[in-house]
Amino acid sequence: MFGADRNGPQPEASVARAPFAFPRRRLVRVFDAVLVGAIAAVALAGCGFADGPGTLIVDPGRYSVYHCNDLTARSKSLLAREQELRNLMDKASEGSGGTVIGALAYRSDYEAVKTEQKLVQRTAAEKKCDLVAPASNFQSDQTIR
User: Fold this and answer.
1) Backbone Cα Rg of the chain
2) Can you give the pLDDT of all 145 residues of the chain as single tens digits?
3) 122-136: string of b/e by CB count within 10 Å (b at 16+)?
4) Do residues 114 and 107 make contact, with C-beta atoms less than 8 angstroms apart?
5) Phi and psi (nearest 5°) for 20?
6) How many alpha carbons lie under 13 Å from residue 30 in its C-beta half-sphere?
7) Can you say how many angstroms the Cα of residue 93 is from the centroid of all Cα atoms in its chain?
């Protein structure tokens, strides 16, 4: 009886909590659910584009003013860049956890290059260019007389 009287009445554990306290476990569950939902939304958003998720990065009208010579040169440089990125992702996937690191580091660039390749091919088809032929007698490079 001597110790209880000196300190006054002791509050119970349920009274000590703030009336609007949000339990930490519940907060973590809500955060996890929002995070999973956001990841799913981003992943599914890429499926809605005809040319892939790189469409967000690449301007669709970028190659409309290019001549066939320019389209051929750009196509060759994009093929080289795609091969370089693919090699880097393959090299990264050899180590433990490298697949995730390779995807984080190189996947967005790889998707952008693939999208640019599709745009170059589409523009070349519209202009009736042959991307594999030598750059000598292209129809769109001739002047109108």
Assistant:
1) 30
2) 555 555 555 555 555 555 555 677 777 787 788 877 777 776 666 555 555 555 566 677 777 888 899 999 999 999 999 999 999 888 888 877 777 888 888 888 999 999 999 999 999 999 888 887 655 555 555 555 5
3) ebbeebebebeeebe
4) no
5) -110, 25
6) 6
7) 18
